[in-house]
Amino acid sequence: MKHLIMALCAFTLIGLTAQANVILHMNGVEVGSQWGGGYVNGPGMATWNSCQFNGSGECVRDGDTFDIQTLPNAVYWVDLIPMNDLDNKDFGFHTDAAGNFSIFKDGGVAHVEEIDGEIHLIGSLITWDIQPAHAPCCSKIIGGAHKNACNGQAIFLPGDHTGHFWGWRDSCGGGATGLTTDFPFTVEANGISPDTEVITVPMSYGGDTEMTVTFGPLPPLQGEQGETGETGEAGAQGPQGKQGPAGGDGAAGPAGAAGADGADGAAGADGAAGAAGAAGADGAAAPCVDCGAIAQAAFDLACKLLALNPPSSVSEFRDCVDAIATVSSVGSGGNICPDSYPGAESCSAYIDSQVQGIFDSKFSGSDGY
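User: That's the sequence. What structure does it adopt?
Assistant: Structure tokens below.
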């Protein structure tokens, strides 16, 4: 039997996956203003870079806390964009089926930790002092921020950074580098040692020809542990303990006397139904189906189905017609009028004898459906 022409229906099953939140603590670390200072990308985000550190998109910023909506069993990437930063501080984290996360970046990162089930940026407090302190000439000197601040302090991630001096824009002149002067400085895990980072910046303002930028200080070292104190006196008696649990059940008592006779029971249910009656006489046979009607329906439907993709050969057209005629014959229960396919051994043979003519008239240049 030939293959049937079938229409394919696609069903899309949408799995509803519960969201979980991952908390990122900035801990005072300053990020730049470009693209919100950074962003998080991963499954569940509406668009690329839509979850930004300024609290836009699927993320919520509350002061120094950044709330990231995540999905289980997913990977997320955190892009940090501190201004004028020489190091790539980006990192990622995985979530599991329970919404827990694990941090990764090429085997680990030094500026981010998991603390009590939340992500924390780890930075160091540094200070800077610019001399001579011509305030207009200290523009954007540290990390793309702190405009006109000739001295101050900020929390920086460990690694290499760049100070930025835009002298001519603020009428401070400039050095051999022209409009701008950039100078690198490095923040160690414990900050910057006092006076170990001293940078000289060329400038021309108020008779001065250069500025000196001094970084520091290293956070103070922890002092030695003190001696163990003397043992204190015994404390007062504690309060009375909680009441103990209830005791177990007692033994069962002796059996009681026999009870009085019960009342009569209700009437029983109805008996089973009687046997089925004899079968009725067979109905009259259904009227037979005309083979010509089956043939016409098969040709009409085959031509409509193949109108958008016409067959390249009469063999393809015959396959389509035979499949539809077979379905129609099965639907008739094989009750085809024996005198409705003259000159042929069967209705199928009758239909097959007309395939070539129908193909020539519908798909070989004649009028089609």
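The chain has three domains: 20-121, 124-216, 291-363.
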